[in-house]
Amino acid sequence: MNNLSRLDLNLLMTLDVLLAEHNVTRAAQRLNLSQPSISVQLAKLRDFFDDPLLLPGPRGMRPTARADELREPLRRALTALENAVATGEVFEPFRAVNTWRLGAADYGESTIVLPSLQALREAAPGTRLAIFETSPTRIVRKMDQGELDLAFHTSDVVASGLHRKLLFNERYVLVSRKNHARVSANISVAEFCALEHVVVSPDGGGFEGITDSALAQFGLSRRVVLSVPHFLFVIQVLMTTGLVAMLPERLVRDNPALQLTEPPVTIPGFEMYMYWHERSHRDPAHIWLREFMSREV
C-alpha cells in the first residue's frame, strides 16, 4: 500500500502544476526547475500512484483518469496548506514587490484599471502590473493554472466556480461627436434607426448586438455600417466621422469631444464583476488588492 511518507511536498506541488499545464517545459518554467528535474519527479509520481498520470498527446500531455481524479482534491489540499502557512501574515503594500496579473478587455482597462492606476502606484510603488486580454473561457483556464490574480468581466463567467464581487452596474447611451446635426435630446426611434451605427464585436465581424435584439422586439432594425473588435477604436471613429454607437456610459462620460444622448428605446445594461480563484481567496496580499480595486472604481 502506498505510504504518504514516501511522497514529499515538492512532488505534490509539481503534480499540481503538471495537471494544470499538461506540459513538462511550461511546468519547469513555472516552478523554476530544469526540464530533466520535472521528468524525474514525474517518474517518482508515476511510481507512487502506479499510474502514468500524463500521456503524450497531440497538444501536449493528456491526463489519465486517475490524474483527473487527483486534480481537484490535490488543489484543495495545497490551497489549504498555503492558507495555513500564510495565517498571521500582514501585507505591507508600500514594501511589496508583487507582480499583479490582471485580466481585462479594453473596456475593463479603461473603466477599472486606468482609474485605479495612479493610486495603486502611490500605495504600492514597488509592485508591477501585467494586463492580459481575456475571454470568459480563458479567464477560468488561466486562473485554474495560476496565471491570473484578478479578472474583470461581466456575469458571463458565473458558472466557473470562481469567487466574484460586483463592482458596478453599467448602462448604454447613444454616443456621437459633439453637436452632431442628426442627434438631438429627443431623438425619435425612426431617426435613431436611420443613423449609421458602429458595433463592437469582440469575436470580430458581427453586425448585431443587444441594441438590435431590443429593436427586433418592436419589428425594427438600425443601419449598422461598421463592426470593430475594440471599444477604444470606436471612440476615435465617433470623434472623426458622422457615425454613432451605443456604448457603455462609463467608457465615454468624461470625453468632452463626444455627445451622450438617451436612446429612444430601453437597452438592458450589464453588471461588471471582479473574479478571483480559491487559491488566493485568503492570501493577505490578494485581499488587499481586491479591496483596493473595489474602492477605486
Automatic annotation (TrEMBL):
Residues 7-64 form the HTH lysR-type domain. Signal peptide: none annotated. InterPro entries: LysR-type_TF, LysR_HTH_N, LysR_subst-bd, WH-like_DNA-bd_sf, WH_DNA-bd_sf. It comes from the Bacteria. Pfam families: HTH_1 (PF00126), LysR_substrate (PF03466). Keywords: DNA-binding, Transcription, Transcription regulation. Belongs to the LysR transcriptional regulatory family. PANTHER family: HTH-TYPE TRANSCRIPTIONAL REGULATOR LEUO-RELATED, TRANSCRIPTIONAL REGULATORY PROTEIN. This is LysR family transcriptional regulator. It comes from Rahnella inusitata.
